Amino acid sequence: MNDSTQMNLESAQAMVNPQSVKTPVNVLVVGVGGQGVIMVSKVLAALCQQQGFQVKQSEVHGMAKRGGSVFSHVRFGEQVYSPTIPMGQADVLVALEWAEGLRWLPYLKPETGIFIADTQQIVPPFACRDRKHGAVSGYAKESVAEISELISNCFAADAGFMAAELGNAKAANTLLLGMLSTALDFPADDWCEVISQFVPPKTVDINMQAFSQGRDWVERYDPAVLKGGKGIAVKPGGLVPIPHEVQFVLPVITEAWCKSCDICVKFCPERCLSLNENRIAELTKPELCTLCRICERLCPDFAISLNYKN
Ligand code: SF4
Ligand code: SF4
């Protein structure tokens, strides 16, 4: 276990002991629609309740279709009165999307707050300011390295990538729960038991793997690569670069996932998609595509993706 993890665990042990904590423990979970923010917060709330704490949870997701902002406050302790976390009072900020995490940083406790983030970047369609073909998109400019200079306990991993390597990118939220579990002193078995109740039965195994991977990732991290003793942990292979300007290539459609719902065809502002003779979505007028990513956001089956240009 590395020094920074140990530090987190020690401070967390003090945090979750109601005898030694006069104020509630605050965990803020943020991300965008479709990532499983609410699942993370529900798992945590249920676990805290199971451990005998009073819990208050609040969430905002009504306006968030896939791609919109979603956040949830979880507060637990001996006695909790308010469901919302005041600014600068979050003990842990869990971000399922990088830019969303940055937006909520003012809520983290300045000295002791723990930032756990997926470096996954989901660029909203409205960040595509220039609608010309091949135009670049704006995105949060701060890199992982820059953020680690500001936060004592910054754990940033490409959880989406790691979960995809396990076989299901949607398990990224469980992987982050594994990372979160190193900051809160609850038994790992109790985490697993609660997670199993909140994921589809067929995905329990992969979610258990994702949880372990997130937990192990923090615990076995080599301190030699920790950045300046700041507690930043990064994916093996180096810091994940957050490009200042993100450029995409044309939509790619995974035929096997397309269920012919026609949503992308109807909503594409440039009318460049259509269903082919097998009723599978196809990019028929690529020259008109503005890379706005609306089709990617709206496809209910994740069948369309626009990838970053290398
Ligand atoms: S929205 Fe997705 S599932 Fe529906 S037609 Fe388009 S690609 Fe297929
Ligand atoms: S195909 Fe997709 S990315 Fe291209 S213009 Fe239509 S909705 Fe936008």
Overview of the structural elements:
By secondary structure, the protein is of the alpha/beta class. It has two domains: 3-245, Pyruvate-ferredoxin oxidoreductase, PFOR, domain III (Pyruvate-ferredoxin Oxidoreductase, domain 3); 248-305, Alpha-Beta Plaits (2-Layer Sandwich). 31% of the residues lie in helices and 17% in strands. The protein is built from ten helices and twelve strands. The strands form four sheets. It has a six-stranded mixed β-sheet, sandwiched between helices. Strand 4, helix 3 and strand 5 (114-118) form a beta-alpha-beta unit. The chain is globular, with a radius of gyration of 20 Å. Bound molecules: iron/sulfur cluster (2 copies). One iron/sulfur cluster binds next to helix 10.
Per DSSP E runs of 2 or more residues, the count of β-strands stands at 12
Q: Give the C-level CATH assignment of the largest domain.
A: Alpha Beta
Main β-sheet, spatial strand arrangement: 2-3-1-4-5-7
Write down the CATH topology of the largest domain.
Pyruvate-ferredoxin Oxidoreductase, domain 3
Overall number of domains: 2
Assigned CATH superfamily of the largest domain = Pyruvate-ferredoxin oxidoreductase, PFOR, domain III
- The radius of gyration is 20 Å
**Distinct compounds present:** iron/sulfur cluster
Q: Characteristics of this structure?
A:
310 residues; alpha/beta; Pyruvate-ferredoxin Oxidoreductase, domain 3; Alpha-Beta Plaits; 2 domains; two-stranded antiparallel ribbon; 12 strands; binds iron/sulfur cluster
